[in-house]
Amino acid sequence: MQRSFRLRKDYLHSAIWPGGLFGSVFLASLLASVLDRELTLAWLALASFWLIFVLIAGYLLLAYYREQLDIDDRSVRKQGVFSTGELLLDSSANLKWRCWPVSGSVVAQLPLGRIAIDLANYERDERVALIDYLRQAVPAEQQTGWEEFCQRWALPLVEERSPPDKNIVLLTRSRTDKLFLWMLIPTAIVLAVIIYLDGWKWWPSFFALAPLWLMCRLMTPKQGVPDTKLTATPGMRWWLISFSALIVGVFLHAWIKPLGILCWIVSAAAFVQYFRQVSAEDRRRREVFSEQAKTADARWRALRAST
């Protein structure tokens, strides 16, 4: 088997469009620092902030064109942005399957070096091909963390979609657009009022909203990502109470200090209750996940044998 893998095109799109918009805001901030002598340092500080995002976009663009993963029957070669690594998958090779970051990763380790492969960098069918290749290239007894990885990330790649859950929603790009639009409109209005009252001194900040939206959109896969509804998230009601009481307390403290302090006490108590519910739900999910992971490998092999 000989095959090459390149980064998803999402990396290219996330570099070009948001990078160009962030670059425009960066240049506008630099121009304002020249025109507005009174706030030169403030504008330069703002320009430095946007420069960080421009550099990130530049790195993504460079990674898209330079990074490549090549595999054959005996070796794995990874071309990175600044370095290249190659390992022979012989009898001394060990694999460590990890459930993090999102979509999982695997580390191939030998006495002479190691290569880490982030599976989120590749398309769905490419992830399946890489998992199949690595599972066959290295003996099973020299692989660790496979059961948990298989249950969390490998099986969802090949299993049929489960019946819809009323508590699960599919976060698509159109849904992200609508969500961001509801946040963008009031934010833009408030920001425009502030800029107007301040004599239009901070007008380049207004254009920063567009690249933020575009970045959120491009980071969402085209096929969408299933996620739990906010209303179905354990402890979310207590979190909302805690956050609301905190904000109300900040405003009340300026006029009626005792009421402000009381709101902060309510906020702290609600947060404790939120933390307790989240911890209990996390323990329950871990127990269920551990039980399911015991049969994950058998289900994976059965599904791959049927294709």
Short précis:
This protein is an alpha+beta fold. The protein has helices at residues 9-35, 40-66, 124-137, 146-158, 173-197, 209-218, 236-255, 257-293, 296-305, and strands at residues 3-6, 68-71, 75-79, 84-88, 94-98, 105-110, 113-118, 143-144, 168-171, 225-228.
Walk me through what this model shows.
- The protein starts with a strand and ends with a helix.
- The longest helix is centred in the C-terminal third of the chain and has 37 residues, at 257-293.
- It has helices at residues 9-35, 40-66, 124-137, 146-158, 173-197, 209-218, 236-255, 257-293, 296-305; strands spanning 3-6, 68-71, 75-79, 84-88, 94-98, 105-110, 113-118, 143-144, 168-171, 225-228.
- The protein has a 4-stranded antiparallel beta sheet. Strands 7-6-5-8 form a 4-stranded mixed beta sheet. A two-stranded antiparallel sheet has the order 9-10.
- A hairpin with a 2-residue loop joins β6 (105-110) and β7.
- The protein has 3 domains: 3-66; 72-159, no CATH class; 233-307.
- It is of the alpha+beta class.
List keywords for this structure.
single chain; 307 residues; alpha+beta; 4-stranded antiparallel β-sheet; 4-stranded mixed β-sheet; 10 strands; 60% helix
Distance between the termini: 18 Å
Number of helices: 9
| Content of β-strand | 5-15%
Radius of gyration: 25 Å
Lateral strand order in the biggest sheet? 1-2-3-4
Please identify the structural class as seen in this structure. alpha+beta
Uncertain segments of ≥5 residues (pLDDT<50)? Answer: none
Average pLDDT score: 84
Q: What is the strand tally?
A: 10
Shape: globular
State the major sheet. Answer: 4 strands, antiparallel
Order of secondary-structure elements: EHHEEEEEEHEHEHHEHHH
Helix content: 55-70%
**What is the count of distinct domains?**
3
